[in-house]
Amino acid sequence: MVLSIHLNTIFATLKNSRAMKNKMQLDKEPISSLFFKYYFPALTSMLSVTVHQIVDGLILGEYVGKHGVAAIGIFGPIITIFIAFTLMLVIGGGISISRNLGSNNYNEAQRVFQHITSLAIVIGISIAIIFPGLTTYIVSNLVGAEDAQLLKSATDYTFWGFLWIPLFLIRMIWGMTISHDGAPKVSRNATLFGVTVNIILDVVLVIVIPLGTEGASIATGIAVLLSMIYLGIYLLRGKGHLSLRQFKFTFKLKEWKQLYKFGIPSFVSEISFSVGMLIINKSLVSYGPLAVSAFGIINYLSFIFLRLFTAAMVSAIPIMSFNIGAKLPERVIQTLKFSLGFCLILGTLVSVVGFALPEELLSLFSSNEPTEFMKIGTEGFGWYFLLFTTAGANYILGAFLQSTGKTTLAIILYLLKGLVLVLGFIVILDSNTLGVWLSRPLAEIGSFILIIVFTLILSKKYFHADSIIKS
Question: What whole-number distance in Å separates Cα of residue 216 and Cα of residue 221?
Answer without folding.
Answer: 9
